[in-house]
Amino acid sequence: MRDAVIVEAVRTPVGKRKGGLSGIHPVHLSADVLTALVERTGIDPGQVDDVVWGCVSQAAEQTGDIARTAVLAAGWPETVTGVTIDRQCGSSQQSVHFAAAGLVSGQYDVVVAGGVESMSRVPMFSPAQGADPYGERFLARYDGVVPNQGIGAEMIAARWGLSRTQLDEYSLASHEKAAAAQDDGRFDAQLVPVTDPDGTTVSADEGVRRGGSVTAMASLRTAFQEDGVITAGNSSQISDGAAALLMTTSEKAAELGLTPIARVHTAVLAGDDPMLVLTAPIPATRKVLDRSGLRLDEIGAFEVNEAFAPVPLAWLNDIGADPKALNPNGGAIALGHPLGASGARLATTLLHHMRDNQLRYGLQTMCEGGGQANATIYELL
């Protein structure tokens, strides 16, 4: 039976808004990680059947099927195709799912999954440009209410009884874990340094802050409700970056002399309340565990995207996972959240962590616009 394995996973550093990666075209960020896959594996890029690429704001420099443009910018043969997909924040996790399905079904033998977002150059909501993306029927179903992720995060905090202090403490811990991972060199093997047009090289994630305190966090203004709990400090950072995974089958990997890191064990989707927006990782996790036949205590590490601090905290409350296994190297609150790249970034960080610590199973999930979530279980090989 055919399977889907990952033989390499890389990412750029995650750049701050208007930071070190902001001068780099998103096509070039994408091409850099594609080039790194070839350099690290020695594969002939002409053997890649497709590049499945996540990108959320498909406007301006990120339009025109950026996947295909990146393939050509990387110097790969014109025979290699590329397709760009949008499942909001989970776009590049969905890329992994589509790539895995293509491998298992026989449509692909070798495929790249990943994604990019340059939020400095193509701001959020650029595709809408003031237009109505919902239409009358959607609005009629939900009493004219337009979904808002920040308000959804406030609703989750209220429903799960999460205080401002709890959110701020969780966020500080994310920065502390990410700083420790940087200091220990835990990200080094997954990172692809990027050089901007001025010759400056960015080789580390830019969003990690050190020496914060709950007192300092408490001084930040709330972002969505005057009497709310969500601030810039307990939310994910607006960021730039790209990530990519080279995927194939076990049989093809052996033929090419490649050593797989892990295989895609189980991949599912779940939908939930689009007004809460951010809760679907909870049913997605339950679904992926049920379909996989694995117990919660068999999972050695969890990556749950930190869109806002209430998301992983509500997930932790309902799923009952070991808090120490959750985002062990920090999450998007510290590292940043380049929308279309984040799914592949989480996968890359998780896979390297599994290999470094010999963890047999890892689980990744993330909230997505529309009240959706992907969930993926990887098995170390």
From TrEMBL:
InterPro entries: Thiolase (IPR002155), Thiolase-like (IPR016039), Thiolase_C (IPR020617), Thiolase_CS (IPR020613), Thiolase_N (IPR020616). It comes from the Bacteria. Residues 5-249 form the Thiolase N-terminal domain. The keyword Transferase applies. PROSITE patterns: THIOLASE_2 (PS00737). One of its GO terms (molecular function) is acyltransferase activity, transferring groups other than amino-acyl groups. The active site is at C89 (acyl-thioester intermediate), H337 (proton acceptor), C367 (proton acceptor). Residues 259-379 form the Thiolase C-terminal domain. Keywords: Acyltransferase, Transferase. Belongs to the thiolase-like superfamily. Thiolase family. This is Acetyl-CoA acyltransferase. It comes from Actinophytocola oryzae. The lineage of its organism: Bacteria, Bacillati, Actinomycetota, Actinomycetes, Pseudonocardiales.
